[in-house]
Design brief:
Distance between the termini: 81 Å
Largest sheet: 2 strands, antiparallel
Structural class: mainly alpha
Number of strands: 2
Number of helices: 13
Strand order of the largest sheet: 1-2
Shape: globular
Order of helices and strands: HHHHEEHHHHHHHHH
Length: 307
């Protein structure tokens, strides 16, 4: 009997880990595409938040959760585009641009919530996506299947396609890539937009799973996804595995709280963030980013045209 209960609890922990890991994995893989192209994307947190709100708005006004999902992807891409324009076209500091997007997302989501739902804390309840019933995992969102497919194709796209080769070339040596006819700006925009689409999808999972949007529901997941990306050394598969690790830490703290263990709740809630600090401290010096990551590029072609 004890062994059966133990097996059930393990299965529940695995299922909870997978569910919690979805936004980490999607955002981490998205951030990998952006940074492989040379654009540091601190804005993942704000993109997730905007994506979550866009999903609710789309589902609320159309009555269709699938359209809400598309709105989340579109909202994520638009938010990422703002960061891309500021970073690529105007060559602003990418860290500051990303933080500005995050702060803007906090304010705009509260404003829209108040405007549409007459509340600055949460939206009205919406219908979520139809659930899929899988063995062991039980009822899961279709976004889980979408996430698995995205992760499965991400590494081949990066390492086996012309686009992936150009993306990595632009992130390592944009001048050399441009000398071979690669449009550096277009490739960088593509990487940023992919990161926006995936982070927006991560936001859609949060709000559609909870059937509403709540203020600040991204909860630092964008920053943890960045840690997963760094720990994964800018490799899509490794970043996804790191996202699962952070999801496992989150699941453990939830299980400990429900188990009634006599440990202050605040200490238990610190587990995922402590793990983030420990992993980043261990990864520093070992994880080498793309050589041109975070460095604005001044096109030689445009300079020649001016002269």
């Amino acid at each position: 009997m004890i062994e059966t209960l133990s097996a059930i609890s393990y299965i529940a922990l695995v299922a909870l880990t997978i569910r919690i890991s979805i936004p980490y994995v999607l955002a981490a893989v998205g951030g990998t595409f952006s940074e492989l192209g040379g654009v540091t994307n601190i804005a993942l947190e704000g993109i997730i938040l905007n994506g979550a709100l866009c999903a609710v708005l789309g589902a609320h006004f159309t009555g269709n959760a699938w359209l809400g999902l598309l709105c989340a992807v579109a909202g994520g891409m638009f938010t990422a585009l703002v960061h891309g324009v500021v970073s690529i076209k105007y060559r602003a500091n990418q860290i500051i641009s990303g933080l500005a997007v995050n702060l803007f997302a906090i304010g705009i989501t509260k404003f829209v919530l108040k405007l549409v739902f007459h509340s600055s804390s949460n939206s009205s309840r919406i219908e979520g996506l139809p659930m899929l019933h899988l063995p062991l995992l039980g009822a899961v969102s279709p976004i889980l299947i979408i996430a698995v497919i995205i992760v499965a194709v991400s590494r081949p796209v990066v390492f086996k396609t012309v686009f992936g080769l150009r993306l990595r070339a632009v992130g390592e040596n944009p001048a050399a890539a441009e000398s071979l006819g690669v449009n550096v700006s277009n490739i960088r925009y593509a990487g940023v937009l992919i990161s926006g689409a995936l982070a927006g999808l991560a936001g859609a999972w949060l709000s559609l799973d909870q059937h509403q949007f709540t203020d600040g529901m991204s909860g630092g997941r964008g920053y943890i996804a960045l840690a997963a990306m760094i720990f994964g050394k800018w490799n899509p598969y490794s970043a996804a595995l790191a996202g699962l690790l952070f999801g496992f830490a989150d699941a453990i703290q939830i299980q400990l709280q429900t188990a009634g263990i006599q440990i202050p709740t605040q200490f238990i809630q610190m587990i995922p963030y402590l793990l983030t600090i420990i992993i980043l401290a261990g990864a520093i010096g070992r994880a080498i980013p793309p050589a041109a990551d975070g460095i604005p590029y001044f096109s030689r072609i445009s300079r020649k045209k001016k002269t």
